[in-house]
Amino acid sequence: MELTLKKYNCPKCEDKEYIFTVEGEVYWCDCRSIRLAKERIEKSGLSNRFDKNKFNNYKANNEQRQKAIETCLKYIKNFDRTKNLLLTGQVGSGKTHLAIATSRVLLKTVGVKYADFVNEISRMKFNQLDQEDFTKSLDSYRNASVLFIDDLYKGDTSPATQRIVQDIVNYRYNNNKAMIITTELDKIGLLDINEATASRIIEMCSYEEDNDWGEYIIEFKGRELNYRLFKK
Rounded CA gap, 19 and 153, in Å? Predict the structure, then answer.
């Protein structure tokens, strides 16, 4: 009788989603956070955007957009779970398109939690009376393998919301956890709202390469970059 080896989706944990160490300790496998991230995207109704927003259909038809793609690809190539990717500036420039395209690639190997700032993080301030639910939501943003915040500070820079954002950013900063962030504000605008939070976000974008420093920061400037107005 010929034996056939069972094929697993994740050979690392053999689809159990947890792994025992030789010391007898147990920890969750990366495939679990990937599965949960994909399920969350499906439930949020964002699956169409994640299917459509790819690097090969982003119109890199000028120097700024071409440099933006190059920065995203470098971020993916050097991804180490500790650095941020920040996309700022011009409305309609394709910031979210590139952030989703980056997340799509990372989702092959690591869980990426998508958080719509307007509909999720900003509204958390109204849930603070339900401490259990509030803490559960906060912990999910703190502990995600990679946190993707879309439209940071859009329409809400209230002190209560700033405290929530600061809590999430501080936790991830102290624990070296990567974030992908889009915002219509430039670096100065972010610093004007909350200097402590912004400085930590920006610091986590810095990287060293060939004895020189760079930043995983994309800044779109100029109305001509608005995808919705200029589609050529």
Answer: 39
User: Under a CB-based contact definition with an 8 Å cutoff, are residues 176 and 81 in contact?
Assistant: yes
Q: pTM, whole model, 2 decimals?
A: 0.83
What's the pLDDT at 182?
97
> CA dist 20 to 12, 28, 111, 226, Å?
11, 9, 20, 50
Best CA proximity match to 102, nearest among 168, 64, 134, 150: 150
- φ, ψ of residue 179 in degrees (nearest 5): -135, 145
User: What are 183's strand-pairing partners?
Assistant: 88
Query: Per this entry, what is the length of the chain?
Result: 232
Strand pairing partners for 115? 149
Contact 166, 190 (CB under 8 A): no
Q: Give residue 2's identity as a one-letter amino acid code.
A: E
HSE at residue 165, side-chain half, CA atoms within 13 A, is 34
The closest alpha carbon to 219, from 205, 199, 229, 200, belongs to 205
Phi, psi of 153 (to 5 degrees): 65, 10
Cα 92 to Cα 4: distance, rounded to the nearest angstrom:
53
Please write the tens of the pLDDT for every residue from 46-93. Answer: 677 777 889 999 988 888 899 999 999 999 999 999 999 999 998 888
CA distance 135 to 215: 32
CA gap 83, 76 in Å, rounded: 10
